[in-house]
């Protein structure tokens, strides 16, 4: 078994293929259970870990870089019925993470009185927030499974097994590594390095308002003109808004202190007064006065550059006699307009858990099970990343692609 020390060595790995020798069992017929390492403790990672624990796997570890992720907050996320069903199966009551029961999106195009240009459609799911969903998941992860402040920096194969290297010099081996480490994934950099992120030419400016407009009862989408989209939805304690506006990489860097790919999330402390003033001015120009006032009065600001990536071609790689997989944003971060980020990650976690259950409980060949998992989920991931630029172009957002 070759020892692979550098990420570049791993990069030479071929993704899992049907030519891989069959029956690479990580679950011995008798004896100890396989070790599953989950990298990332936000949404996809905890869903996967909880499904594996529910399946009776005992050696599951979640490694999360952030030492205090519980203190982090995030805004509105949409969950389609497939994702809600996975959470049902984890016995997480929906009312714990869906606080506003609406199922509609109301859209306003153009300028002028809102009444005549409102269109409403049904969304096939419900809305939550990152904060609510993460909290519901994290509360169910046993303390001995969740390891915080553990940043992975590399992976090697030793004695036939994947070995994770922590930034602090520690190491941990596993039989299967599931990278759920988000859009700047170290797993993707190691396993699939030819797919860097590209700045799409516009920014999602975000605000958490502590007041809620009286007429805000569902997810509202305002599209007054090309190059401007404003979304707002009720959340506990107020309203969450996202204002999509074009910006060059130079503007982004000036506003948020680092280039888009380097600062994939700009938190409150990175939002400069200039960024704030620009957003306020755009709100005053394009939004009805009550919404412009709401934006202006929102103290809690954040931002994220919209980033694109080439569609994935693989999801699982053999590492020694073990495996490593990419899921969720680590596999393919979609643009927010697709509303598929959390859904894709949860569906992929559910599918991977199903593949592992067949292997552990029924002796299914693991290579075959992982290839089946890839076949079922890859096309959706590809489709989602392709949709992003199409929707963006329709809205006049971003650079043509
Ligand atoms: C605090 C927070 C707030 C968010 N708010 C929103 C929001 O308001 N709207 C929205 O659309 N999306 C939001 N997201 C992103 C959203 O969760 C994802 O787009 C999507 O749901 C897929 O989730 P994920 O678990 O695959 O990836 P992510 O949610 O991005 O999670 C990746 C996790 O991996 C961890 N990680 C990264 N690198 C390493 C490493 N080397 N070693 C160990 N751990 C690592 C990160 O700290 C993070 O917790 C937020 C994410 C976070 C972390």
From TrEMBL:
<protein>
    <submittedName>
        <fullName>2-polyprenyl-6-methoxyphenol hydroxylase</fullName>
    </submittedName>
</protein>
<dbReference type="InterPro" id="IPR036188">
    <property type="entry name" value="FAD/NAD-bd_sf"/>
</dbReference>
<dbReference type="InterPro" id="IPR053212">
    <property type="entry name" value="DHP_3-monooxygenase"/>
</dbReference>
């Amino acid at each position: 078994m070759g020892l692979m020390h550098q990420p570049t060595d791993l990069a030479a790995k071929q993704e899992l293929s049907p030519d891989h020798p069959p029956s690479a069992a990580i679950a011995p017929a008798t004896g100890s259970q396989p070790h599953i390492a989950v990298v990332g403790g936000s949404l996809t990672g905890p869903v996967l870990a909880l499904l594996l624990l529910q399946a009776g796997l005992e050696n599951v570890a979640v490694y999360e870089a952030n030492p205090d992720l519980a203190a982090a907050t995030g805004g509105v996320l949409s969950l389609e019925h497939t994702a809600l069903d996975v959470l049902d199966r984890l016995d997480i009551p929906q009312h714990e993470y869906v606080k506003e029961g609406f199922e509609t999106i109301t859209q306003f195009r153009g300028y002028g009185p809102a009444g005549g240009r409102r269109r409403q459609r049904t969304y096939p799911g419900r809305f939550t927030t990152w904060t609510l969903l993460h909290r519901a998941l994290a509360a169910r992860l046993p303390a001995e499974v969740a390891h915080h402040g553990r940043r992975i920096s590399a992976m090697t194969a030793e004695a036939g097994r994947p070995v994770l290297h922590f930034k602090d010099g520690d190491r941990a081996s596993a039989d299967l590594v599931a990278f759920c480490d988000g859009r700047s994934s170290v797993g993707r950099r190691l396993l699939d390095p030819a797919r860097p992120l590209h700045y799409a030419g516009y920014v999602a400016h975000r605000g958490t308002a502590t007041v809620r407009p009286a007429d805000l009862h569902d997810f509202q989408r305002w599209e007054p003109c090309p190059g401007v989209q404003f979304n707002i939805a009720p959340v506990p304690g107020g309203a969450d808004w996202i204002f999509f506006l074009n910006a060059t990489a130079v503007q982004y860097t000036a506003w948020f202190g680092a280039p888009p790919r380097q600062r994939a999330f700009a938190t409150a402390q990175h939002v400069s007064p200039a960024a704030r003033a620009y957003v306020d001015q755009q709100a005053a120009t394009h939004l009805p006065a009550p919404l412009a006032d709401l934006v202006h009065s929102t103290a809690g600001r954040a931002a994220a550059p919209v980033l694109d990536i080439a569609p994935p071609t693989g999801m699982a790689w053999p590492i020694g006699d073990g495996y490593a997989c990419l899921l969720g944003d680590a596999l393919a971060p979609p643009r927010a307009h697709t509303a598929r980020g959390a859904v894709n990650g949860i569906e992929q976690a559910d599918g991977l858990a199903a593949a592992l259950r067949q292997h552990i409980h029924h002796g299914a060949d693991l290579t075959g099970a992982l290839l089946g998992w890839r076949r079922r989920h890859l096309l959706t991931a590809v489709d989602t990343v392709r949709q992003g630029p199409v929707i963006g172009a329709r809205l006049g957002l971003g650079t043509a692609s």
